[in-house]
Amino acid sequence: MLPRESATLEYKERVSPSFLKTVSAFANFGMGRVVFGVDDDRRVVGLGDPVGDALRVENAINDGIDPRPDFSLQVDEGARIVTLIVQEGAHKPYLCKGRAYRRSDASTVEVDKLEYGRLVLEGSNLYFDQLEAVREDLSFDLLGQKLAAAIGVADLDSDVLRTLGLQDRQGRYTKAAEILADANSMAGTDMVRFGETMSEMLDRETVAGVSALRQYDAALEMFERYYVLERIEGGLRRRHELVPYEAFREAMANALTHRTWDVAAHITVSMFPDRIEIVSPGSLPSGLTEEDYLAGHVSMLRNPTLAGVFFRLDIVEKFGTGIMRIRDAYEGAPIGPSFSVRTGSVAVTLPVVKSVDLSGAEEAVWSAMAKGRRLTRSEIAEGAGFGKDKTIRVLNSLVARGLVERLGVGPGTRYRRV
User: Fold this and answer.
1) Is the domain defined by 9-123 classed in CATH 3.30.950.30?
2) Which of 45, 243, 311, 382 would you call most buried, defined as having the most Cβ atoms within 10 angstroms of its Cβ?
3) What is the pTM of this model?
4) What class does CATH assign to 360-417?
5) Residue 66 three-state SS
């Protein structure tokens, strides 16, 4: 039995004009095959004149697809089938009767306006972050501070902005500049700290309309609140990471630099007691397969200008080592990260791998205490769902272990995670 139709394979019982839409899809979004002489039940029924049909296929492509794609034909006269192999092209979009198409599983569908625009950019060897910005009233205080700290750039003048790709030769800002500006109209990052279920939200912060660098910092700050513990051991303060910090930092940087910025969807960071899930809008860039992505050996940048700035700030590696670096952060751990490529997004799951040996009651009290906040006993009890006496016992245990600090005495007593 022949394989099923897929995103890269289609069967046609005979040669008809409808196959040209599939040619457009393969040329626009990745190579594929059309096999003529096979029916919908995957039975070889054969063509009456395979050699003549091959010529008709070639003529139909030459006349019906603009520009002409790169393709080849294979004729099996014994089985009386013709196989058309279409390569992904560099001169996108490839149009059939003025329209561009893509594959959706085993079907061929017309692209929407947004996808069409991306094809035009690819065909022009341009990227979204290199386009002209909508706004010109941009400021870069945060970017300036980070550049000064990372590479000693003291003055963010036009020469520096052009070098970074944030201004063109005419002095106009690019989309990358808008993404990195202190205030903008771009999408952001939505972060939620969940309890045992998704219906139990313990903390939430949405950071949008600000620099991608601020989004990055905010995500790291929330990570520090819930997945980093500091304990006093032998008179020394020790740092314990429930999730490898380097893995989270790398995953967050990748989400920002590889997301599709031309859609309004936020990056989502879902923090659970046993894992963190980071979902970045936009699937893999055209030409990058899921196999190559998961292998971590191929880097096809969706936003090269933005990635270049993150590289100069030593936030990301420029040559596509993100997946490997995330995996390396889990080296020796009993469980590792997982990656999921979806139709419109890419998700990374980072499991909790280190424990601080908290009891169930201690974990509940710990989770109820956001790092840095000074809380009363009653506030902690309410968050943990315990009574007064039990909360005091657990707090005393955490204080004795150096995980919680008691501040003040009497009615003014407050507690703070160390």
Assistant:
1) yes
2) 243
3) 0.69
4) mainly alpha
5) strand
